[in-house]
Amino acid sequence: MIRENLLEDILNEIKFGESTLIECKPSYIPEFSVLAITRYARKKNLPVVIDDNLDMLHTIKTNLELFGVEEDFRDAHVIKTGGKVEVGDVIRRISMTEAPSAYIQKYKQAAEDAFHDTRKAINIVLGLERLFYFVRSAPEFYMIIISMQEFLGNKSRKAFYIIDKNVAKKAYINPLPELERIMSTVIEVEGKGISARLFFKKSASAKFRGKSIEVTTDELLR
């Protein structure tokens, strides 16, 4: 039996300053995850900052429409890297042609601006695994990993990185082992018909550490 407030319990348990990795295979898990996290943020009166890499937010918005969910993300502040279709309130664009060092510097400035006027915010990161396809050396790879580590412990944000495992594994350097290392919470999500199984591979919370929880599609679409 799924408790009505299960998703809220999970999101409440993840603390500000945490970085959470949500791993999934090709499915609609990213769509439902973004929807659930965005609705949670609104309920808690928390601003949302979305890192939209390579038009992933447009894909999510369009797929949600197929489920009859009208969500335009107009109240989300969006940092957009690559892509052409703007969804939400795009506050900064970063070119894909930047060298990794320049990209990281511009991203840090964009993130600083996005969180400058808020004490607490929810950060959703989409398409990160695809950025690693532009990395061609170990120094570039670790430059990105180290820059991500710096955000861990930043109590102005509660961050969720939604990753397609199949895409990540085929990058020049598979980022999953290092991402799992630097994240405070790692949730593997597997679609099962009209439900999803959440397995907490790693968690700062003893309440969910090592637990496996099933959530229905109806629960996610409420």
Q: Helix amount, in percent?
A: 25-40%
**Integer average pLDDT:** 91
The main β sheet shows up as:
9 strands, mixed
**Radius of gyration of CA atoms, rounded to a whole number:** 16 Å
- By CATH, the architecture is named 3-Layer(aba) Sandwich
Gap between N and C termini: 16 Å
Number of distinct helices: 9
CATH superfamily: Protein of unknown function DUF257
CATH level-3 fold name: Rossmann fold
CATH class: Alpha Beta
Order the strands across the largest sheet as they lie in space. Answer: 4-3-2-5-6-1-7-8-9
Series of secondary-structure elements, N-terminal to C-terminal: HEHEHEEHEHHEHHEEEH
Structural class: alpha/beta
Strand content: 25-35%
> Which overall shape is indicated by the principal axes computed on the Cα atoms?
globular
Number of strands: 9
